[in-house]
Amino acid sequence: MIEFEDVSFVHQSGVKALDEVSLTIGSGEIVALVGENGAGKTTLVKHVTGLLKPSSGRVLVDGEDTKSTSTAQLSRRVGVAFQNPDHQLFSESVEEEMSFALRNFGFTQELIANRVSWGLELFELEEYRKSSPLVLSGGEKKRLTLACILAWDPDVVILDEPTVGQDSIQKEKLAGTIGMLRSTGKTVVVVSHDIEFLWPVQPRVVVMKGGRVVGDGPAAAIMQDERLLASARVVQPEMVEFYQGLKRRPAGPFIDPLEARRWVEGSEL
Fold first, then answer.
1. Which one of 44, 60, 61, 103 is least enclosed by Cβ atoms within 10 Å?
2. According to the model, what pLDDT value does residue 269 have?
3. Which helix or strand (DSSP H or E) is residue 157 part of?
4. At 111, which CATH number?
5. Number of domains, the chain
6. Residue 115, SS3?
7. What is the pLDDT of residues 95-125, one digit of tens each?
8. Residue-range definition of the domain harbouring residue 259
């Protein structure tokens, strides 16, 4: 469980990035953080890893205060794929990149080899095993950072703008990976502007504005609140717009175009 208790954070420049945020994320939840640039989303998730410490209030990860817990200790339980993968990749080869954390966490050589092969195959990076991460495209680098994290199997996975640089096929696979993590009871926090990607995942949605949480609830409820979304400069998913434009409609918005088509074909509009 992740708990923010009246957390505020002020940068050295004097800018307040978080303003008395109280938020609880339960074990096994899939949570999306949305809001315009500068809303505080990335600052919030950096507090979970201990990279930032609250100016006031406290952050608890499984009951442990991040102020008194090292980033190294937290990283075993919390894996983060940041928006810019160049800030995380440093090894001479893709294989070494994936092996680094596993060695530090004390995995056996056999298990390291198995986990590396699993991750490279899952994220279609096997051909780059001996290559430098620097030769990868931006999208491939993001997949590599995610492969590195999943290889050590943390309880919490944080993805900061994971769809940037990914084509539609890779986005679909990423959604499938989040579904896999959900089925195994992992806690997943996704920071994203890609509303069309988030909508079919149907996460709990936390809306941020000006360093505060201004909305929190199931995707179906939050994404129909036009006033809330407009205030936070978040666009509605296309399926929600289509649903709200119907004179006759089912009880809830369509998850994807196929569901919408089936309903339309079976109804007299």
1. 103
2. 46
3. strand 156-160
4. 3.40.50.300
5. 2
6. helix
7. 999 999 899 888 999 999 999 999 999 888 9
8. 238-269
The residues pairing with 24 across neighbouring beta strands, listed in sequence order, are 3
Output the CA–CA distances (angstroms, integers) from residue 119 to 92, 109, 144, 186, 267, in the order listed.
18, 15, 8, 17, 45
Count of Cβ atoms closer than 10 Å to residue 26 Cβ: 11
Report the 3 state secondary structure along 255-268. Answer: CCHHHHHHHHHCCC
Over residues 228-255, mean pLDDT: 89
Q: Per-residue pLDDT for 268 more than 70?
A: no
Q: Do 250 and 204 share a structural domain?
A: no
Based on the fold, state whether residues 53 and 97 are members of the same structural domain: yes
More confident of the two residues 249 and 37: 37
**Which of 202, 193, 192 is CA-nearest to residue 222?**
202
What integer pLDDT is reported at residue 249 of this predicted model? 81
Q: Which residues contact 235 (CB under 8 A, 6 or more apart)?
A: 195, 229
